[in-house]
Automatic annotation (TrEMBL):
Keywords: Coiled coil
Stretches of the chain forming a coiled coil according to its record: 66-114, 164-298, 331-505
Recorded family membership: Belongs to the WEB family.
Lineage of producing organism: Eukaryota, Viridiplantae, Streptophyta, Embryophyta, Tracheophyta
Annotated protein name in UniProt: WEB family protein
Species, as recorded: Lupinus luteus (European yellow lupine)
GO terms of biological process kind: chloroplast accumulation movement; chloroplast avoidance movement
Length: 587
């Protein structure tokens, strides 16, 4: 800051020579000058050191992030190797299951052939028995030989029946082994599919981590370049500081010379009056500076409040994004469950058709056995009918369990759809709250702009007041230095730039929030559509379950009717056996 004091104008007569004299004192003492130069140097050194520290800290952070990413990549590689081993195990188990399946099919074919031969032998024995009965009715001679042949035929028939029972038991065992082999094969397929999925997931993670590592390496190189640039700038700053120090030293020497000359030239009274005026003007300037500092502090406080509110809005946006990702995961899980329900529906329909076909075959077999079998074939028919009834009962129990499971799954899907609706409503409420908060932030930004304009107007008024004070003085003139005026104007520009940046950031965040809100609304609508689809699928599953129940009841009625007919046939057979007959052959 410099002060220039002029003497009175030329119109006023003065004993001394009239002219403009520069009586500014750039430094109160040598100590003040040294402290001023030292502060400038120390502040520049501090800036350079802070730039170095920030750059080194950023490099260390990037290196630590790179190490963590490499560790995660190694973990994922290990998981990939494990998944490959499980995949190979599943393939080996699948091959074993195929081998066992082929063996079981061979056994089944051999058992079927033995069954056919046994059936043919039984038919031959039946035909021989009929021929013997006809011969017995025609011939009365040779009764003993015919009886022996009849007993021999009975023994052959019993052996064939035992062979048939053994073949049936073997067939049941082969069926059980075949079912177990199929289950093992399905388990192996599922394990292979899971291994493939895990391998795909691990490959995707590896690609993502490799991309992140590449970006981290690029950022580390950029940070190294930035540190080199900062070092070059530091060297330039040190050179500029030395040049400024030399300039300040020369200015100090010139000022000391001028001070000595002025002390020799002028009277002490004039210097005392000038010092008093200088003190008054410096006090006024300090007051003005304090007012400017207060205005700047109020502006900075308003900017800080706006930035804090913007940070809160960003946090809320992040929470909304996390809720959105959780909703996506729920929708994906519901889609997978819907696909599983559709698969279960198809299986239930197939089982329903199989039950209907089985019922039709049972009815056909009953009718054919009723028409073709004689009175002596009752016991075998009864046993076969009981076996068929037991099998159908087991299948109906399985159908009932599957229908109950479908109902339980439908109820679970309904509860999940209700939860999704509640979460969608919550996300809408959060979006509305965000809109309200953003409106408040925009209002506060407008208020900060208005306060900035007021502060600028007050600064202008203070400058006008300062100009009036300088014009009102008759003995001298107070003038701010170019550096101080530039510093004040730079501070004003910085405050304006800060407020404009905060406003632009707030507007950008408002636009981002609006776009995210639109996306959230679209996703909520998509979730609601998915919920409606899930509801329709659950209704279809319930209808299929009801149809399966009705089919079960119908099959149970048919079975009861068959059982009643079998009992009637057994009673009629017992009655016919107790009644006197000439000669009977049981088959």
């Amino acid at each position: 800051m410099s002060f220039r004091i002029r003497d009175q104008p030329k119109d006023i007569i003065s004993p001394r020579e009239i002219g403009e004299i520069d009586t500014r004192a750039p430094f109160q003492s040598v100590k003040a000058a040294v402290s001023l130069f030292g502060e400038v140097a120390v502040s520049k050194e501090k800036r350079a050191n802070s730039i170095k520290r920030k750059s080194s800290e950023n490099v260390l952070e990037k290196e630590t992030q790179l190490l963590l990413a490499q560790r995660e990549l190694n973990k994922i590689k290990k998981l990939l190797e494990k998944s490959e081993t499980t995949k190979s195990k599943a393939r080996s188990e699948l091959d074993k299951a195929n081998v066992t399946l082929n063996e079981l099919t061979k056994k089944l074919t051999s058992v079927r052939e033995s069954k056919r031969t046994a059936m043919e032998a039984a038919e031959a024995v039946k035909s021989q028995g009929k021929e013997l009965e006809m011969a017995l009715s025609q011939r009365a001679i040779g009764y003993q030989s015919w009886k022996e042949e009849l007993e021999h035929a009975r023994k052959e028939y019993t052996t064939t029946v035992t062979e048939l029972d053994a073949s049936k038991q073997e067939l049941n065992k082969i069926r059980q082994d075949f079912d177990a082999a199929l289950e093992a094969k399905l388990a192996a397929f599922q394990a292979a599919g899971e291994a493939q999925r895990s391998a795909k997931m691990n490959l995707e993670k590896i690609n993502e981590l490799s991309k992140e590592i590449a970006t981290m390496k690029a950022s580390i190189e950029q940070m190294k370049l930035a540190t080199e640039q900062a070092q070059e700038e530091q060297a330039k700053i040190i050179g500029d500081r030395e040049a400024q120090l030399s300039y300040y030293r020369s200015a100090k020497e010139e000022a000391e010379v001028k001070l000595v000359a002025l002390k020799n030239e002028y009277d002490p009274e004039l210097t005392q009056s000038l010092e008093a005026k200088l003190a008054e003007t410096s006090a006024e300037i300090q007051d003005l500076q304090e007012q400017m500092k207060q205005a700047h502090a109020s502006e900075m406080n308003s900017v800080r409040v706006i930035t804090s509110e913007i940070k809160e809005a960003t946090k809320i946006l992040q929470e909304v994004a996390s809720e959105e990702s959780s909703l996506r995961n729920l929708v994906d899980s519901l889609r997978t469950e819907l696909e599983q329900v559709q698969i279960d529906q198809k299986e239930a329909k197939e089982k329903e058709k199989a039950a209907e076909a089985l019922a039709a075959t049972l009815t056909d077999e009953l009718q054919s056995t009723k028409e073709g079998a004689g009175p002596g074939a009752g016991s075998g028919f009864v046993e076969e009918a009981e076996n068929f009834s037991e099998e159908t009962n087991m299948k109906m129990e399985q159908l009932s369990l599957e229908t109950e499971n479908a109902r339980v799954e439908a109820e679970e899907m309904r509860t999940k759809s209700e939860e999704l609706k509640q979460e969608a409503e919550k996300s809408r409420a959060v979006a509305e709250e965000l809109e309200k908060k953003l409106e408040v932030v925009l209002k506060q930004a407008e208020e900060a702009k208005a306060e900035e304009k007021r502060a600028i107007e007050e600064m202008k008024i203070l400058n006008d007041m300062q100009g009036r004070v300088t014009n009102a003085e008759t003995n001298g003139k107070i003038i701010l230095t170019v550096q101080e005026f530039a510093a004040l104007s730079e501070k004003i520009k910085e405050s304006e730039d800060m407020i404009e940046r905060a406003e632009a950031a707030a507007i950008i965040q408002v636009e981002a929030i609006n776009t995210r809100k639109i996306e959230v609304d679209k996703k909520v609508e998509a979730n609601l559509k998915a919920i409606e689809e899930i509801k329709a699928a659950t209704d279809m599953a319930l209808r299929n379950a009801e149809m399966a129940d009705s089919a079960k009841l119908a099959v149970e009625g048919e079975l009861k009717r068959w059982h009643h007919e079998e009992q009637n046939m057994e009673s009629s057979l017992d009655h016919s056996e107790n009644s006197p007959r000439p000669i009977s052959l049981r088959i």
